Amino acid sequence: MKAVEAVPQAVDPQRVAQHGEAVMRLVDEIFPLVEGFYVDLHRNPELSHQEHRTSRAVAEWLSRAGFEVASGVGGTGVVGVLRNGPGPTVMLRGDMDALPVEEKTGLPYASTARGVDSEGNEVPIMHACGHDVHTACLVGAADLLASTRERWSGTLMIVAQPAEEMIDGAQGMLRDGVYERFGRPDIALAQHVGPQPAGLIAHRAGVILGAGATLRVRVFGSGGHASRPHNAIDPVVIAASIVTRLQTVVSREIDPADSAVVTVGVLRAGNKANIIPDEAYLEVNTRSFDERVQRRLHAAIERIVRAEAAASGAPREPEITLVQQAGVTRNDPAHTAALAAAHRAYLGDAYVVDMPEPFTGSEDFGDFGLSDGPDPVPYVFWFIGGTPHDVWNAAPGSTPYEKLAGVPGNHSPFFAPDREPTLRVGLAALTLGALTYLGHTSPRPPAETATAGHPSLLGEPSAPVPAPAGESVVEEEPELDSTRDADMAALLAEEDPADEGRADEGRADEGRADEGRADRAGLPQEPPPPPTGPTRGTDTGPGRPPTGPQQPVGPQPPTGPAFPAPPPSGPPVAAPPPASGEDPLSDDLPYPYRE
């Protein structure tokens, strides 16, 4: 397999942006279907390991787009592969599962679904973590790239993962031989919607998410009558002592320079006030940014649990079981820099920010990086903002850091990403991420704006646009309907050049020291304003006026109900791979290349 250093980005950031302009010209045609797919998923969420309907819909979409598709990978996972000539293999991953949360957003497409969790309990279900956004953007980006194969070369690998919330979906797909069966990627990419303002992308090199784990603890006593506690050994008292003592682990056993969290999220014992039960049950969750700290946390928890049981004379040793564990999500620094540069070149500096500090949340996407093995896969994971601008502006606080704490975040029953800007930036981020490695390094002939095996999604192809003599169409800056043009150009035109120095001025003012904490949130001091209407033009950076004609283009904000996604019907049909030896870049093949 190729070494990490043998898989640099295929093209420089400006050329990625140019490729993105050509690919994203189709976004206005496909967007209603992507939006409808998202609304359908939001209205019909499924718990971890139960994503049957969602996986069927993903498989059908990928099949129609021309991918080789396999379902049931690692349970309910879906893998789609599109081979398009020589080049690296790029993996785009999205997760599909929802949470046992009752939705309280008041949205017209709010979930009312209920289901049965892994312990047999009936629970409400909601996409409270944005996995519906991830899945809709995943299939949309796959379709855009399948429709513009003349713009790139290599292999695109789409992975729709189950059970991220259980932190075992990635491992399940790996155990099922996802790399052995479908190919080992040269780079793996993924994104997550978060509470930042809608339209932003947040990157961080190195550690971006912490390690997380859940331990189940069962402590045993001797039951008895509540009136005669001296004849019993009370496991409730043992559990209470454990909870209290665990609060000292971070404050007294972990270096203050290290971040760590210990939370007891479940505590159950007994069922009647006048009965001392036989046992008590706890679930303990840990977070850290360092595997060494994680090991120390777990050792301390086990020591405290056993010591408290022994101190109370428990008749049996407690049971301690590690049921969930995710390692640190550690982005490859060089590849993170390449992707951030490509996103900036397309969207503009104001809409791509760097996160100075990682989040304590955890993910299992890093498992696809095989970091414990001799031949790891480099990966990059980033955040896209989802908070509506009016909600952000109304949130309490004068700094972005304070506002982050005041808006509904992931796992909240009020989590409701702003549909259009969130989906559009998610589509652009994934598509540009793939093109950073798959895009051509040399000029290409003009392309048709047509689908590849997916006429039902984008309609009839338009005629090719001839390039002027002696010029490359790639080298031009065409006036195209792109995510940037639809959402961002007008905003950049309104940026005040003086804004660039405001954050530093705020940090210099001792009376406003907290404003400097905005950097910790991975946000600009002055977040971009809400969209005022799409325009066409080529922006030249924040605070600078765009060049080219300024005129309204692109779709208006959605009104009324979203387009419903068609329900999946029947098993997906596997698309055949290209004929052996065919090179989509060969001059001997008709252009643009189609299978």
TrEMBL record:
This is Hippurate hydrolase. Residues 213-310 form the Peptidase M20 dimerisation domain. One of its GO terms (biological process) is diaminopimelate biosynthetic process. Keywords: Hydrolase. SUPFAM superfamilies: Bacterial exopeptidase dimerisation domain (SSF55031), Zn-dependent exopeptidases (SSF53187). Residues 499-520 have a biased composition (Basic and acidic residues). PANTHER family: METALLOPEPTIDASE, PUTATIVE (AFU_ORTHOLOGUE AFUA_6G09600)-RELATED (PTHR11014:SF63), PEPTIDASE M20 FAMILY MEMBER (PTHR11014). It comes from the Bacteria. GO terms for molecular function: N-acetyldiaminopimelate deacetylase activity. Residues 543-579 have a biased composition (Pro residues).
